[in-house]
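User: two proteins, same treatment. go.

Assistant:
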Amino acid sequence: MKKVYPDPVAALAGLLRDDMMIMCGGFGLCGIPDELIEAVRASGVKGLTIVSNNAGIDGVGLGKLLETRQVARMISSYVGENKEFARQYLAGELEIEFNPQGTLAERIRAGGAGIPAFFTKTGVGTKVAEGKEVREFDGEHYVMERGLFADLALVHAFKGDTEGNLAYRLTARNFNPMMATAAKVTVAQVEHLVEPGQIEPENIHTPGIFVKRIVHVPVREKRIEQRTTRKRAEAAPAAAGGGQI
């Protein structure tokens, strides 16, 4: 089956609809499928539920979909870098389901593994547990969390072959691998597209059986979410009476 598509718009053709759930890989701005996000924006679909660790920043990543009011609900663990997100939430225009980061990761992993629910101690006795079943196991209380399984997963990989096998690089190996397993259809954008056999089997993080469509995105801007630098130290004064050496 041909998996490689010429561009992000073609890769998403026939997959997008209003009110669907989309998983979107990435951590901050690292490993986000930004070209696929741009294609979602161009499609005009709305009422989306987005599962993502965070919501990008204003005008970048998922921030683009927030600007165009295409997102109705976010299932996330951190959204503190996006002013438009905060504005819409405080105005009652956007629904948020907050998750502890580890819980969100496990909900996605469980969905991909066919596990409908699991119990965790994280969040017991807090707002996270409100409205959820709490059980006691061996004298400890645990809250039940549901697995997540989306209509569509959008992921970014450093390298992929034409059969859909993917390899991620450094921090981009965050939510991408688990999201690739937890949707009806997974579409991957890859920086380096190679022929089958050119990725060593032990270096494959997502087997091709999970990936339905691939788009080659060789040139992309890699942004820094928060640039933090140390002040340059002042030059030490020259020694008194010293001459040139």
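Protein 2:
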Amino acid sequence: MSATVFALGFSNWKRRTLKSCFPGQTVRFVDDWSALPDGAVLVVWGMRDVRACPIRLQQVIRVEDGFLRSVGLGADLIRPLSWVLDTKGMYYNAQQVSDLETLLNQAEISADLLARAGDLHRRILAAGLTKYNVGAGVWSRPADVEQVILVPGQVESDASLVFGASGIRHNMALLQAVRAAHPQAWLVYKPHPDVVAGLRAVGQDESLAGQWCDEILHDVPMGSILPQVDEVHVLTSLTGFEALLRGKRVVCYGQPFYSGWGLTQDQMFNVRRTRVLSLEQLIACCLILYPRYFSRDSRHSATPEQALDTLQHWQQQRAGPQWLRQGWRFILRNVVGVR
């Protein structure tokens, strides 16, 4: 283990959380390649391209948000309760192996770990938890409708589409494909919450969504939508994983991390994913073995169970003036420059 790791290009608000990921090690924050010594252990956010690095690197560690993150959006600079660190690739990059894919292919999952995953699963369902836990609206499944399909939108510049979707890559193309395959179904489209909040760009032709779906939901919590639908059709959205937790049929048009293990209906095949998993095995790897969890102030590590406790308590406290949140988003867009 290297005594020092070098973190390239991390904004100030992420630095406390990153330090919590490397207990007992020194984290040095740098802004350009010139500050790196030969043989450095380099930490970067997401799929940042490191090919331009002029020196030999000992290791590259990539960091991203975890799957049970917060009550509020990362684009709103809400502190995370979970991150993932990957030394091989990144969970949403289907073009190469990742630490998560290795776990899913190879991990020996004990009976105790399976039981723990089952308990975690039941708690998530009982609390209605998802990644961001946002939305205040209410929605009910239409009466006398035989089949309801949810199509979640994604941020179209998102790296998971670049690295995980080699065919359809636009929300409206997905929506059109689902409509063509299910002309009689009630199609519900839910734009990505970052787009709804104005913190990320609207997707290509997204204003035309009403031409191919029956209903568009904006401010309804995903945790209250999923139990009411029959199927979820995704490109690479995490909503597909959240739908599997709720026993829904999930159709994947890209290659998200949870596809290829015998639990989803896949339009694309990944030759590296050779194992058939149970849902509890998937949960054990994705929610227990792979992520790092933190206290709400990011100063201390936590267990998945402690993170769930925090999320539930956080949900109870989250109500606040809408004008305050909108004001904060105005500052993010026009002063800080978050897009």
